[in-house]
Write a structure and sequence with these properties.
The protein is an alpha/beta fold. Helices cover 39% and strands 17% of the residues. Helix 5 packs parallel to helix 10. The longest helix has 14 residues, at 44-57. It comes from Ciccaba nigrolineata. The active site is at 8 (nucleophile), 10 (proton donor).
């Protein structure tokens, strides 16, 4: 039997937000106030579209963006964790559900040679236009009131599990590793044998504890991590069982 590992990307696999890291390419490494203040809650993808137009207008090319993105640091212990998962792929299926984009994630994983660790990456599709501008689109449409309009990670997870079942693959346990508010929706979908691993001190951990205080705790077990070494220790226990 296999385990399914579901990873968020920003502040989970990498220790920064990839979408704000790209601002290092902007003139003076910052965005004009008007652009910065144009973000509307739930509409991050459109906002990033405007950021990419600004970078393109200022002559920032693909190779410079790639060089910048591949300097983003991995979270403490993450390199060891991904190496460990890579060595035990017969036990673990591994996917990413992220509000970043395909171009950034692809660059970062390939530069560190981790792309083979992941079976699938579910994130906003991005590509360079014929004029050399990076463009990004919403991942999908959904009807979930809790999630940003471009991505509901619960829908991603449910559709992935359904597709796997059709192929005859079911999982002993799902381990969900994340940090953000948009990771709560998929965590609430997990069953009692599954485990949510929120990053210590981040929004997901706070939201899970708030639910417990409101006496409507999540159904799955919860194990907080601060370094990916904590996650690796847990996975080692899992495969010993």
């Amino acid at each position: 039997m296999k385990f399914l590992l579901v990873f968020d990307f920003d502040h989970t696999i990498v220790d920064e937000n990839s979408d704000t890291w790209i601002v290092k390419c902007a003139p003076e490494k910052k965005l004009p106030n008007g652009l910065r203040n144009s973000y509307r809650p739930g509409h991050w993808t459109e906002y990033m579209g405007r950021v990419f137009v600004y970078l393109g207008d200022n002559g920032v090319k693909e190779d410079e963006m790639k060089r910048t993105m591949t300097t983003i640091p991995f979270t403490a212990g993450m390199v060891d964790l991904l190496g460990f998962i890579g060595e035990n792929k017969e036990l673990f299926d591994c996917i990413i559900a992220s509000d970043s984009n395909t171009v950034f994630i692809d660059w970062i994983l390939k530069a560190a040679d981790f792309h083979k660790v992941f079976d699938e990456v579910f994130t906003n599709p991005a590509a360079f236009s014929s004029t050399g501008y990076l463009t990004v689109q919403n991942f999908h449409a959904h009807h979930c009131a809790k999630c940003p309009k471009n991505l509901c990670k619960r829908k991603v997870l449910k559709e992935f599990l359904d597709k796997q079942l059709e192929r005859g693959v079911s999982y002993t346990q799902i381990v969900y590793i994340g940090d953000g508010g948009n990771d709560l929706c998929p965590v609430m979908f997990l069953k009692k044998d599954d485990i949510a691993m929120p990053r210590q001190g981040y929004t997901l951990e706070k939201k899970i504890s708030q639910l417990a205080q409101d006496l409507s705790p999540v159904e799955c077990s919860v194990l907080v991590w601060s370094s990916a070494v904590d996650i690796m220790s847990y996975l080692k226990l899992l495969i010993k069982k």
